[in-house]
């Protein structure tokens, strides 16, 4: 899968949360390390220039596996190959190279800026390559700390951004993909703060409340978004914003999801020590002795990270909603292979067959420290690579039938 977005919407920072969840960097450094920016110029400028890949291993619980619909599952472990791509329009060729070898994309959108030019460009590229998107609204911490939005304003801002994304998806959708629009109540939208390392989808909150109130998780998820209001007096749900006496009711998303977050922000940022302590007890968050001495933003980061760990939310969303190679190659093979659709190579790609003919797609060349030498970075679409195998390398100018730009190497 790849991470795509407009420039400076926080792709590399968000990738840190995923990398730290996989145990590659410590959670304390996530958000500041920008682990995927490896080149010197990337670190100096604070931008991604080349796309980089990393493999991560992740295990899910048996219960969560049941959420995966329409795909076969085998065991509870996942291997995720993540490619972090640049957002600058000048480097869009890097994005294309990254997208060609992935099956799903995490589209990051800054919840304050909303959908920008490059968001639309990369999303269009992804849909053109038949890649299924999931969305992450990033920088929620800024909406709370800098803009000081109230709950309803924040909900409306989220809602507008999601609507803009869905308009783009419905405009450029490839019919082979089916319905790819994203909905918070279905769990395909995450809300996060990459810098602070916390994030959530509605699943986390639905899980929590389903246990607490003994209600069905799926039902709870649909209630947590849109025009659903809960009346605490009558303990009943309604779709109207006022109760029988005409008093305003609070939206369920604001009440059940945003309220705990706002309370944590309020008590910590305004140094209300006692209130913070009771909140932590209620939310079952324990702090180590070092962490108890923190205050302000440093404490906020630690608490929010424990309350809503970003890596968990994003990896769950990725595993549940993005397709596996077996699922995606069935409908992507037509774009990946130019030959006849019924020859053994096409069938091998379509079935993602490890015993089929070897088909390897090289998406980019990575320079090595030796002058003039490159590593070929690619993905196996069918067959199995073994050391010493003979492969036919077809260059960019290769024409089927001729020997131009063709090399046979082992």
UniProtKB/TrEMBL annotation:
Q: Which GO terms describe its molecular function?
A: GTP binding; GTPase activity; ribosome binding; translation elongation factor activity
Residue intervals of the Tr-type G domain:
1-326
Please give the InterPro entries that the UniProt record associates with this protein.
P-loop_NTPase, Small_GTP-bd, T_Tr_GTP-bd_dom, Transl_B-barrel_sf
- Transmembrane portions of the chain: none
Which keywords accompany this UniProt record?
Cytoplasm, Elongation factor, Hydrolase, Protein biosynthesis
Entry GO CC: cytosol; ribonucleoprotein complex
* Protein name stated in the entry: P-loop containing nucleoside triphosphate hydrolase protein
Query: Where does this protein come from, organism-wise?
Result: Rhizopus microsporus
Please name the taxonomic classification of the source. Eukaryota, Fungi, Fungi incertae sedis, Mucoromycota, Mucoromycotina
């Amino acid at each position: 899968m790849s991470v795509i977005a407009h420039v400076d919407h926080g792709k590399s920072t968000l990738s840190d949360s995923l990398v730290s969840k996989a145990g590659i960097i410590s959670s304390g450094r996530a958000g500041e390390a920008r682990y995927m920016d490896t080149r010197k110029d990337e670190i100096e400028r604070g931008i991604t220039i080349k796309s980089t890949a990393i493999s991560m291993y992740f295990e899910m619980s048996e219960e969560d596996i049941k959420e995966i619909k329409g795909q076969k599952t085998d065991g509870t472990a996942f291997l995720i190959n993540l490619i972090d791509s640049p957002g600058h329009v000048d480097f869009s060729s890097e994005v294309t190279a990254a997208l060609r070898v992935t099956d799903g994309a995490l589209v990051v959108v800054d919840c304050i800026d909303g959908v920008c030019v490059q968001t639309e460009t990369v999303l269009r590229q992804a849909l053109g390559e038949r890649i299924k998107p999931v969305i992450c609204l990033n920088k929620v911490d800024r909406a709370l700390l800098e803009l000081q939005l109230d709950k309803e304003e924040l909900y409306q801002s989220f809602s507008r951004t999601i609507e803009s994304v869905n308009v783009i998806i419905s405009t450029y959708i490839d019919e082979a993909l089916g319905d790819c629009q994203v909905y918070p109540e279905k769990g395909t939208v995450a809300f996060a703060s990459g810098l602070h390392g916390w994030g959530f989808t509605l699943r986390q909150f639905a899980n929590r409340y389903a246990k607490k109130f003994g209600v069905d998780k799926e039902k709870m998820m649909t209630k947590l978004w849109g025009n659903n209001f809960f009346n605490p007096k009558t303990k009943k749900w309604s779709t109207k914003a006022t109760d029988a006496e005409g008093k305003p009711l609070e939206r369920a998303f604001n009440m059940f999801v945003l309220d705990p977050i706002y309370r944590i922000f309020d008590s910590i940022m305004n140094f209300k020590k006692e209130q913070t302590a009771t909140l932590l007890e209620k939310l079952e968050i324990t702090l180590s002795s070092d962490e108890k001495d923190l205050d302000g933003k440093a404490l906020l980061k630690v608490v929010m990270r424990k309350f809503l760990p970003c890596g968990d939310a994003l990896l769950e969303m990725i595993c549940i909603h993005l397709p596996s190679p077996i699922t995606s190659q069935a409908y992507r093979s037509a774009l990946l292979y130019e030959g006849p659709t019924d020859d053994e190579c096409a069938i091998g790609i379509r079935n993602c067959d490890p015993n089929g003919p070897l088909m390897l797609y090289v998406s980019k060349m990575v320079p090595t420290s030796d002058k003039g030498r490159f590593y070929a970075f690619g993905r196996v679409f069918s067959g199995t690579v073994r050391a010493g195998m003979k492969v036919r390398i077809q260059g960019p100018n290769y024409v089927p039938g001729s020997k131009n730009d063709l090399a046979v190497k082992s």
